[in-house]
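Submission sheet (multi-component)
Chains listed below:
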Amino acid sequence: MNQSDPRPDPQDSLAHEPAAGSLSARARAAVAPQSPYLNGLNPEQRAAVEATEGPVLVLAGAGTGKTRVLTTRIAHLIATGKAYPSQILSVTFTNKAAREMRERITAVIGPVAEGMQWLGTFHSIGTKILRRHAELVGLRSDFTILGTDDQLRLMKQVIEAEGIDEKRWPARQLAGHIDGWKNRGLGPDQVPAGEAGAFANGKGGRLYRAYQERLKTLNAVDFGDLLLECLRLWREHPDILEQYQNRFRYMLVDEYQDTNVAQYLWLRLLAQARKNLCCVGDDDQSIYGWRGAEVDKRGAEVDNILRFEHDFPGATVIRLERNYRSTGHILSAASGLIAKNQGRLGKTLRTEDEPGEKVTITGAWDSEEEARLIGEEIEALHAKKHSLSEIAILVRISAQMREIEDRLVTLGVPYRVIGGPRFYERAEIRDALAYLRVVNQPADDLAFERIVNTPKRGLGDATIQVLHNHARAARVPLMEAARFIVETDELKPKPRGTLRDLLISFGRWAKLSETMSQSEVAQTVLEESGYTDMWQKDKSADAAGRLENLKELVRSMEEFPDLQSFLEHVSLVMEANESDTVERVSLMTLHAAKGLEFDTVFLPGWEEGLFPNQRALDESGRAGLEEERRLAHVGITRARRRAKIYFASNRRIHGLWNSTVPSRFIDDLPESNVEVAEAPANFSYGGSRFDRMQPFSGSSYQTPGWQRAQAHRASTDDGGYSARRSGDRRGPMLIEGELVAKSTGGSGFKLGGRVLHTKFGPGTIEAVDGNKLTVEFDKAGRKMVLDSFVEALG
DNA sequence: TGGAGGGGCATTTTT
DNA sequence: TGCCCCTCCA
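Outcome: structure written.
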């Protein structure tokens, strides 16, 4: 490929555009050197790259070189002259994925990749399209993209305006509904009556419509609109749709299994004409069903990916099943697990790598011990010179992180939490952006409202209400209403003066932005408004971090030509620059781990109720269970060499200790690829306790995996009296060991006797049933416990 | 108007 | 158990 090729971009110009496959295009392809980029692809990958025409579904299992196929395919399209970079639509879900793809394409084909102006997320591409045709959907091209917090504030206003009690019908809930509708591609008029009525006694649909109207008046859109408005644009203006259909000769979609209905419709409209749509995904890694990645118009649960062949007849389906990531046992364990799912297209991953280590399963007495065991293993790996950056701990819910973090802090193991609030979702960033938005666009009411009293300057609800009333009556933006109000005596002198000062400041900053660089303006605004000061005076632990984030924000602004373009860019693609040179263990949710890989992966919390998550089961039944299982599959397949599963028999949920049962997913793992971990020296107590957990365990303890776990335990521990590691801080355990032995011959506890439980503390025995005691604990209330868990007092 | 404390609540989350 | 939101009071 000639990298300095100054070919004109055929788009938006009258430049001659050789048709794909035309003589000149073929001639050009013939001139191009043989395609070195195809080297090293396996036959399936190569097929996926070369099947350029018509609909193609690439089922790419974990670690099968999916990104490589995508990037090579693009390189191939360009190198063979089938399309110019600007004629390829390439969609990803995250900005990170888009960035990485661009980098990798550049590495293969050189700077021509810069011409890929349609490589990005659904949302960024949607934005680009909407800005071009904004007026056709009732927007101006400089529309603002609202973040979640702005959305919520707006919905609150809408709810109040309709005279609905916001406490009874919280904005958050409405946001959920609207979000769901938008995910399914439904505008206010298309929501099924039954659903629209579900909120606020039948007013759901009306609120949705009112919300959309408010957005339009504010010249704003939310994330969902970025797709929905495109759909509307294309449906109402077929000529424009046609432009895009012609423009995008080839379309590629990454992570297709995660597309929601709106995205699916968006793609289908575009692909209708040329049908050169290549979707890459893995039905076994579909873990965002709850976010609208399923459920079609008829309400049936149908994954887009499962019906691709139906929607695109004659589609080529290519399976990538050669895994280049994990060792044999890990891969077989994951395959065995996912094979238990029914709703799947079916793939069997294989590897030519060595079997490697088996997946380990370790039981812990409680979540604290679980964290300790993980900590110890990490230390051991570190001692063996394993890099900490190659270790990850993947949890089901964020709440699990706390105990693990505590442990890592105690051990002094450096770690980082991945995920959490995005950079631009952080309060301080949103605040700073709001200031800049007002400077840039004084009519931005949402931004104005956000910062009018941040930092606190005595312009509270009362003042805002006055402004609102005027703004509404005079149909002007808040800022303009404020200008008017400060000239009247409607406000008390103090707030009036403050407000006037603020208006003067904004006038000054707006003027500054004409001469100063945008980062200097930002700096000045943040200082003069007292915003930086506010955080400097803040004594809370994260204030320093927030100031750091603000600096980062100002720094990142330098890359943009002006404030306007910075703001346009920022709402979609801002991310914190992680300049991290220290090696750290990564801690994140399973969801956040998708797409990542590590040598060693710790998977704590494999317990019924937590994982599979009870709520997923309650709300979505079998579909929920299968999604949870896919999540487990994603977890295991993140590991290259070591996957370590843990469960605890006791876990604190919302502050209360619950006894738990190992996850059914443990039993889904093929026996031959799994080993029950050597019982740690201090674990035998737990082991002996597990043996007595039956009354609490429901039926699951009978399952093969559980029996395996027990059998192994019996062979590796010595009946509950293993030498305890010295220094174990849990002193009373030895006593409990004795109690275990004692209680085998029957209960030695009497009604009314006082006992001490390691977790629940002291209590009085209220009933005895075999080895089960009902104890009224002084602090924890009445519980049924096993006698082996308590020590007789006095 | 704003800080302090009580009540309710508590998956997963790109854009 | 801890957090967030809301209300109450200074």
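Remark: The radius of gyration of chain A is 30 Å.
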